[in-house]
């Protein structure tokens, strides 16, 4: 497992190419999220992502640990940008390897759903009409809640 929280841009193809470390990998699933140039109909020129150094890495590590407990994973890598980013830049990379595809798909979805709702990260969007902090969405909370139900059964 590797967790990277950084101001510097990352190359998703590099992240992908370094993920498979085990010859038993039968499935590799990734997610790359980008800074959108429009959000809820409003233009976005850039984004600032605030975090608590040390706390953020710990929270992402806990999410990855939970995924490894729930599914038989061979590796998990998470890269997350903080600071200033322009529209179109990658903001997050999640990569998961397992012997079988369903575990990799489910774990990647779980990590992203929990990352969106449980990681101590705050987004401020900047556009032609000024800046505003982005509120969490009910759809993200509902997506994460489905895993809570699964984990309790």
Which residues sit in consecutive blocks of at least 5 with pLDDT less than 50? none
CATH class: Alpha Beta
Largest sheet: 4 strands, mixed
* Distance between the first and last residues' Cα: 26 Å
Average pLDDT confidence is 92
Kindly provide the radius of gyration, computed on alpha-carbon positions and rounded to a whole number of angstroms: 16 Å
Provide the β-strand percentage band.
Answer: 35-45%
Q: Helical percent range? A: 25-40%
- Global morphology: globular
Strand order of the largest sheet: 1-6-8-2
Number of helices: 4
Q: What structural category characterises the helix and strand content?
A: alpha+beta
Number of domains: 1
User: Judging by the overall fold, what is the CATH architecture?
Assistant: Alpha-Beta Complex
Give the total of beta strands: 10
Protein name: Molybdopterin synthase catalytic subunit
Catalytic activity: 2 [molybdopterin-synthase sulfur-carrier protein]-C-terminal-Gly-aminoethanethioate + cyclic pyranopterin phosphate + H2O = molybdopterin + 2 [molybdopterin-synthase sulfur-carrier protein]-C-terminal Gly-Gly + 2 H(+)
Enzyme class: transferase
Pathway: Cofactor biosynthesis; molybdopterin biosynthesis
List keywords for this structure.
153 residues, alpha+beta, Aldehyde Oxidoreductase, domain 3, 4-stranded antiparallel β-sheet, 37% strand, globular
């Amino acid at each position: 497992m590797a967790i990277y929280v950084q101001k510097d841009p990352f190359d998703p193809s590099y992240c992908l190419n370094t993920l498979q470390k085990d010859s038993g990998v039968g499935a590799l699933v990734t997610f790359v999220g980008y800074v959108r140039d429009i959000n809820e109909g409003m233009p976005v020129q850039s984004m600032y992502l605030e975090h608590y150094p040390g706390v953020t890495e710990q929270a992402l590590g806990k999410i990855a640990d939970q995924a490894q407990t729930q599914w038989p994973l061979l590796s998990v890598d998470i890269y997350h940008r903080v600071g200033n980013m322009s529209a179109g830049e990658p903001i997050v990379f999640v990569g998961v390897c397992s012997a079988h595809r369903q575990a990799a798909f489910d774990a990647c979805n779980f990590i992203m759903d929990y990352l969106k709702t449980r990681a101590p990260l705050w987004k401020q969007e900047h556009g032609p009409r000024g800046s505003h902090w982005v509120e969490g969405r009910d759809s993200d909370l509902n997506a994460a809640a489905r895993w809570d139900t699964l984990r309790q059964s």
